[in-house]
Design a protein that fits this description.
This protein is an alpha+beta fold. The protein is built from 11 helices and 15 strands.
Length: 348
Amino acid sequence: MARKIPIRNLYYLLCYAWDVLEERDDALVSELDGLSHVELLAKVLTIAGQRLWRRGLDRGYQMVTEEVRSPRGRLDVPQMVARRLQDRGLAACRFDVLTHDVLHNQIIASTARRLITLADLDDKIRDGLINLSRTLGEISTIPIRAALFTQLQLYGRLGRYRLPIHVCELLHAQLVVDEATGELHFRDYVEDDKRMARLFEAFVRNFYERELPGWSVKRDTIHWELEALAPGAAEYLPRMNTDISLRGPGRTVIIDTKFYAKALVSYRGGADKLRPGHLYQMTAYLRNIASRGGSDATAAGVLLYPEVQPIPTLQYTYGANRLTAAGIDLTQDWRLIHDRLLDLVATA
C-alpha cells in the first residue's frame, strides 16, 4: 500500500488480530523503529520464545521404544523376535515419557532455526534467534507444514503459546525458497492484500470485543427475505455473512471491512465514487436483517477502509437505517486510531 503502516502500529494491529493483547510488550515498542516487517516478527518470536522458556516450557507424553534390560511399559514382541534381543538379555519396550519435545515447541524452535538462514536480517535480530535456538537445544527440528497449525488447541495452559505460534504461522506462509538458488526469501505480508484483509478484519473485530464492554461482537449469518417458489430453490441462495456485527444498548451496527489500496474509484476519468458492489452488499445486509426486529430493524452499516489516500466520512440514510463509508488512517498515532474506531460506532 502506498502509505506504509508504522512498525509499532503494525505490532499493535497484529496483537489485536491474533487476540494476544495480554502478551503485548509495551517496552518493546520503543525498540521497533527501523525494523523491517520480517525483523518485527523475528524479534517478537525471540522475545516470546525466551519468555516461554523462563516460565517453563509445556511438556507432553510421547511414546518411545527402547531396548532395555529391565522391562517397563509394553513389550514389543515382534521387534524382540526380529532382532533376537532375548539372546542378549534385552527387551524391546514401548512406554510414554514426559518431554518438552512436543509439537508446539518444535514449531517455535524449527521456525527460529529456519529464519536464521534468511539473508539481510539485522545482526542483533539474528543473534537473538541463534540464542533462542540454543535455549531450545533439546527440541527437535521438524519440517513445518500448514496442516500442523490446525492440530494445535491453544487454550487453557497453552494460551501463552498463541503469540509465538501465530508468528510462526505467518512466517511459514511468507517464507519461500527460490527454486533456482535454494535461498530463503520473505514475501512481505503487508503487500499481500488478501492476507492483510483478513488481519484487518480480525483486528477490527477483536478491537471492539475488547474496547466495547457490554456489547456483543460476532459474525452474523443473515437470511434472505426471499420466499422460494419451487422446492429446493432456497438452497441456491448465497450465504450472507457479516464481517462484524455489534449489538449494544438499543443499537446494532454492522461493519464490513474492506482492505483496498483505493477505496474510491473513478470511471472514465470522472469523479471518485464509492464502489457499487460494496454499497449493494451493505444495503442487502440492512434490508434483510430488518425483519428480526428490535435494534436490528434500524441497524447502522459501516463500510470501513484503511486510508491509503484521505477518504471523506460519508453518511447516508437508507429508510430507517444509516449507512457510513469511512476510512481509518493506520499511519497516525495509535491513540488516535483507538479513538477513531470508537467514534465510528458512536456516530454510525
